[in-house]
Amino acid sequence: EAQVTQNPRYLITVTGKKLTVTCSQNMNHEYMSWYRQDPGLGLRQIYYSMNVEVTDKGDVPEGYKVSRKEKRNFPLILESPSPNQTSLYFCASSQENTDTQYFGPGTRLTVL
Amino acid sequence: QKEVEQNSGPLSVPEGAIASLNCTYSDRGSQSFFWYRQYSGKSPELIMFIYSNGDKEDGRFTAQLNKASQYVSLLIRDSQPSDSATYLCAVRRSGDMRFGAGTRLTVKP
After folding, report:
1. How far apart are CA B97 and CA B36, in angstroms?
2. Which pLDDT does position B15 carry in this prediction?
3. Which pLDDT band, with edges at 50, 70 and 90, does A1 fall under?
4. Sign of the CA dihedral running A76, A82, A86, A87
5. How many Cβ pairs closer than 8 A exist between chain A and B?
6. Is the peptide bond preceding residue B109 cis, with omega within 30 degrees of 0?
7. Residue B101 and residue A90: Cβ atoms within 8 Å?
8. Under a CB-based contact definition with an 8 Å cutoff, are residues B10 and B104 in contact?
9. What is the mean pLDDT of residues B62-67?
10. What pLDDT does B1 receive?
11. pLDDT per residue as tens digits for the range A47-103
């Protein structure tokens, strides 16, 4: 089944404890992206990647890192999480030069 | 000013009516325009995308784009209770995507 998977789905952590949210797609998509969704603010893009080893900042990259060493994986790294990074995070992917973006199921992160 | 603006709603229409959702954007360099639907607690799913001025129809959905006015809309004909969801407008310049905050639509039986 074609899908985007994220892990973990739910995470409660404490300020300053490094964490990684994994994202993987099995559709051989070139484009991958991370978003956060907060009430009243909608989806905001954190980082995106047009292909392996190519990443670019989105609208709200501060406090996040990403890497794209393999086509299928696009992990989101929070080196020192803070409470304002409490949010619902979505990973998405699409084929190059198409705009049908497939979203993962979301990761609900709480930073205490 | 937000880059992508939508009325937050809620928008309520009776079953069978036409629901009209509107969106304006500020970046004239935007190239692609999207409507996503998001049910509560679920991921966004793409309904339609449009690139050129004019209308694009897909079943009960019609997307309309007016680049001069920086305006994109979504019409849902014969609205069904299952259409009740939050509708997200998004614009894309190259790799970067900007979403509106969404309009919550309720279709009443």
Report:
1. 13
2. 97
3. confident
4. negative
5. 52
6. no
7. no
8. yes
9. 96
10. 62
11. 999 999 999 999 999 999 999 999 999 999 999 999 999 999 999 999 876 678 899
- Both tokens assigned to B104: 């919550």
Nearest to A99 by CA among A3, A10, A30, A9: A30
**Residue B90 touches chain A, beta carbons under 8 Å:** yes
Nearest residue of B to residue A50 by CA position?
Answer: B95
Nearest CA in chain A to B48: A100
Question: Residue A3 — pLDDT band, cuts 50, 70, 90?
Answer: very high
Q: What is the pLDDT of residue B83?
A: 97
Cβ-based contacts of B63 with chain A (< 8 Å): none
Q: Do A43 and B44 touch (CB under 8 A)?
A: yes
For A105, the closest of B43, B46, B98 (CB atoms) is B43
Residues B72-93 have pLDDT tens digits of 999 999 999 999 999 999 999 8
Q: Do B96 and A48 touch (CB under 8 A)?
A: yes
φ, ψ of residue B15 to 5 degrees: the values are -55, 135
Q: Which of A42, A92, A2 minimizes the C-alpha distance to B38?
A: A42
What is the three-state SS of A40-108?
A: CCEEEEEEEEEECCEEEECCCCCCCEECCCCCCECCEEECCCCHHHCEEEEEEEECCCCCCCEECCCEE
Rounded to an integer, what distance in angstroms lies between the CA atom of residue B17 and that of residue B89? Answer: 21
As a whole number of angstroms, the distance between CA A23 and CA A78 comes to 14
Using the predicted structure, report yes or no on whether residue B8 has a pLDDT greater than 90: no
